[in-house]
Structures are given as C-alpha cells and as structure tokens.
Design a protein that fits this description.
Helices cover 69% and strands 3% of the residues. By secondary structure, the protein is mostly helical. A hairpin with a 6-residue loop joins strand 1 and strand 2. The relative contact order is 0.09.
C-alpha cells in the first residue's frame, strides 16, 4: 500500500517503466468478476481518500477486515485511474523530450554545416561563371581544373555525399534513443489501453498488434496496421515487392518509432 501511495516521479523512460509495472501490480489485486458496479462515484472517492490518509498500521489496527477490504479496493480503483493518467502524460513527455533532443542535435549539426555550405556555394558560383564564359569544351575543361585540383574536387564531393539533411540527422538521433524507449514499451503495450476517438482506428490497432507480437524480433506481415505510418518511417519500416506492392517484411524498430 505504501508503495502504491508513492508520488509519481519525473518523466524518464526508466521511471515510466517502473510506473507501468506499478499499475500492473495494482491491477493484479482487482477481482476477476465485475465489482463496485453499484457504488456511487462520490462514495468511492471518499473511501479512497480515507485510505490515503491512513497509514498501513492504522488500517490494520483500527478497521475491521470487511471495512479494510472495502477501503483498500476503493483506493486501488482510484489510484489505478490516477496512475494511468500520469503514465500517459509521462509517455507524452518522454516522447517530447526525445523529439526536442533530436531537434537540438539536428539544429546544432546544421549550424556546423552552415560554413561548409557557404564554401560550397562559392565553389558552385565560380564554376557556373566558368561555364557561362567558356567558348568551347576545351576552355571549359581548362577553366574548371584551373580553379580547383582533382583532389580538391574529390574532397568536396566526398563531403557532400557524407553530409546529412536536417530530417535525416533528426531521424538518426531519434533512432539512437530507441534502446532507451524500449525500457518501457513492452510494459506500455500491456498496460495502457488505447481506444479510437475518431474514425481512423489504425493507431489503437497497431497498439494491439504490438501487444500481441512485442516479444517477436521479426513482426508478421499479416494483419499488421500500416496506415498511421508517415515518411520516412513508412519507407524504413515496410519492405514491399516492387511490382505487386505486397508487404514482405515489417522492420520492428522504425515501425515502433513511427
């Protein structure tokens, strides 16, 4: 009981995993058959508040067993709902923090690349001038190779091929956080209920799909919801035959991140 009363910690993948396990522990105390159906919400909240005020020793010493069970069950129902809301909020915060870190990383990388970009613009501008003023192919060739050596052009081309776009850099950073996110995702699928509030129910279906197949390293292609995926995650997660478009493989990491 004292463990269930403990406050919700700060949002982090590790803390979220522990909170989801705490929710599962509370759920294990619920009876298998329907219960508390005829109890007014006001009474339930009142009994839950009494339990929150009592210490474990006071409940054990002062109250009779029947009243103990009633108060404890009301508290567990109320606390279960509170922790579900807190866990959902924590999940949103964890993902927002992950996205912010990825944005910051991509922005920092873009600032570093800004100087290189300016240098490449100068090279391009100079080459375009050579092209514009050249009268024949020989003059063009001589002008281009007089401006830069072959090794310098090779170095510039190599830098361009290695450079990442802002979106690609951001996506790579999110993928770096995947191991951290996996700390709570298995518990998330088992514990957090999702219900569609709009006509498109693809995300709740994907949630149920991952709940059923989370322990599998290779996700099955049959019955796998993909409508919610946006680029670039869809391209990375779904492997299809070129001619028929039939899904031949679903990659777990980009599927979950998408």
């Amino acid at each position: 009981l004292e463990g269930f009363k403990a406050p919700v910690p700060m949002a982090s993948p590790h803390n979220l995993a522990k909170e989801l396990q705490r929710i599962a522990q509370i759920s294990a105390y619920f009876p298998q058959t329907p219960f508390m159906e005829n109890t007014f919400r006001l009474h339930l909240e009142s009994f839950a508040e009494l339990t929150r005020r009592y210490t474990t020793a006071e409940i054990d010493q002062v109250l009779k067993k029947k009243r103990q069970r009633a108060l404890l069950l009301c508290y567990l129902i109320e606390r279960h709902a509170q922790l579900l809301d807190a866990a959902a909020d924590m999940g949103i915060r964890v993902w927002e923090n992950t996205s912010h870190h990825a944005d910051d990383h991509a922005n920092a990388r873009a600032r570093v690349m800004a100087e290189d970009y300016e240098d490449r613009q100068k090279v391009l501008k100079s080459i375009l001038k050579v092209i514009k003023t050249s009268q024949n192919p020989a003059q063009l060739w001589n002008g281009v190779h007089k401006y830069k050596s072959q090794d310098e052009y090779d170095s510039i081309l190599d830098d361009i091929e290695k450079s990442e776009s802002w979106r690609s850099c951001r996506r790579s950073k999110i993928e770096d956080h995947y191991a951290s996110l996996r700390r709570f995702l298995p518990f998330w699928y088992k514990t957090i209920p999702l219900t569609a509030t709009v006509l498109n129910s693809s995300i709740p279906k994907a949630h149920a799909f991952m709940k059923a197949h989370d322990e599998e390293s290779a996700l099955p292609t049959t019955g796998c919801p993909t409508d919610f995926l946006e680029q670039p995650w869809k391209r990375l997660a779904i492997r299809q035959f070129g001619r028929t478009g039939e899904v031949m493989r679903v990659v777990k990491k980009p599927y979950e991140l998408g």
